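dumping this here before i forget
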Amino acid sequence: MTSSLRRLWKDVEKHEGVGEWDKILKRVYRLAGLGGSRFIRRRAIRDLLAYPELASRIADYMRCTGTADEYYIFAQSIWGHPEQPYPDVNFKVMEGLLRLEPSSSEVSKIRRIASWLLSGGLKLSGLTSALPWHHY
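structure:
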């Protein structure tokens, strides 16, 4: 599946930005994620910034095709990116952390993020306002 998807991607990529490109991307990310194909990981941040409505799909792809450490790096890249103003994107990327299956060494990083978020040390648009005690 991976090789045929790569061939298809080479043909499709020539038409990037034409028509309903976001729908094409959404399908490619899904198929690549199901097949465990890593070939579009290098463009995930760029696509996420250009098509924030695909945040769930891209985050799922990154989670399914990489390690917990790689997802952690991806999440930090998104949260710290100066062109990423969308609270929904931060929230979807954080949700991806909750779905990881980390090794014991990777658990401490995720625990640290949770501690920072719960203590108010990590302030990400869309996340702190989603916490249930934020309104009290």
